[in-house]
Design brief:
8 helices, about 30% helix, 19 strands, alpha/beta, seven-stranded mixed sheet, about 325 residues, five-stranded parallel sheet, globular, single chain
């Protein structure tokens, strides 16, 4: 059995920052991660999408190069090469986090961490006795409960990051900053994009005037935004997918080669033993006090699993607070 001062479950931007900060403060630390270090942000969120944004920006500028007296010739976007560049960026940063963990002498365990008691965590066949526990298990995609989710071509925000062929048309269900970012990327690369959402496009929690201004820019770039549409199903329509909803005038819909479910994320707290431990929950989110401590003394929680602002820098800051 290993003996540690702190065990962190989850190696995303909350967990790995908490682990490194605890090590800096002199603690013996174990970090448990079931997938790759870096969490949603590095592997499936901010970093890969910003790599795609950069490629889209360069493509858009290159098409206008002659306006600035630069002769380029034919300009073409290659999605396989764009995705390869994205993977290279992600791999580089994940490798950097791995080196940070190693350099700070944090003990890394790959597997699912389960809290046996407030002083004992088990990962695979290894038991780790600990003084404190920090839960940083993050979030997962939250899908609308509509018919047709399992159809080929209906993608989550994780799935779309692995596309190798540029779709001719894309329907984005949901208009959060995540959905709008993907809509903008594929629009810039030449895909016909439609955003379908129930409420006005305001991009909460961004200031309302910025959301309104951005909605105008979307239409200017040729992105069709349909609001007031509560999607009820996705159906196959010959070679395309059709997203349908009801209106007072009857059923309406829009077709696309690909449908992206950008309908938000929900806290992920399964597998760690929350109910057996007696952790206080609100829905799937773990409840904490102002010091990020749960109702179980010595067990803390940070990041997306709290169900608050699901942003990387929020999780990182919470990791430092919980550690201290």
């Amino acid at each position: 059995m290993e003996q540690k001062d702190v065990v962190v479950i989850g190696g995303g931007p909350g967990g790995y920052v908490a682990a490194i900060h605890a090590a800096h403060l002199g603690a013996q630390v174990a970090l448990i991660e079931k997938d790759r270090l870096g969490g949603t942000c590095l592997n499936r969120g901010c970093i890969p999408t910003k790599a795609l944004v950069r490629s889209a920006e360069i493509f858009r500028e290159a098409k206008r190069a002659d306006e600035f007296g630069v002769e380029i010739g034919s300009v073409k976007a290659s999605l396989p090469q764009i995705m390869a560049h994205k993977r290279k960026v992600v791999d580089t940063l994940v490798s950097g986090v791995e080196q940070l963990i190693k350099a700070n002498k944090v003990s890394l365990h790959h597997g699912i961490g389960r809290i046996v008691s407030p002083r004992l965590v088990k990962v695979n066949a290894t038991e780790i006795a600990t003084g404190k526990i920090i839960v940083a298990t993050g979030s997962e995609s939250a899908l609308l409960p509509v018919d047709g989710l399992g159809l080929p071509g209906v993608l989550t925000t994780d799935d779309i990051l692995e596309l190798e062929e540029l779709p001719e048309s894309l329907v984005v269900i949901g208009g959060s900053h995540v959905g709008v970012e993907f809509a903008s990327i594929f629009n810039a690369l030449g895909t016909k994009v439609t955003i379908v959402k129930r409420r006005p496009l305001l991009l909460e929690p961004i200031d309302q005037e910025i959301g309104r201004r951005f909605a105008q820019l979307l239409s200017r770039h040729g992105i069709c935004v349909i609001t007031g549409a509560a999607v009820k199903a996705i159906i196959r329509d010959k070679s395309l997918l059709r997203v349908v909803w009801d209106t007072p005038e009857g059923e309406k819909g829009v077709n696309g080669q690909i449908v992206l479910m950008a309908t938000g994320r929900r806290p992920y707290s399964e597998e760690i033993g929350c109910s057996e431990l007696g952790l206080k929950m609100e829905g799937g989110a773990i409840s904490v006090n102002e010091y990020l401590e749960t109702n179980i003394e010595g067990v803390y929680a940070i990041g997306d699993v709290l169900g608050k602002y699901m942003l990387a820098h929020v999780a990182s800051h919470e990791g430092e607070i919980a550690t201290e």
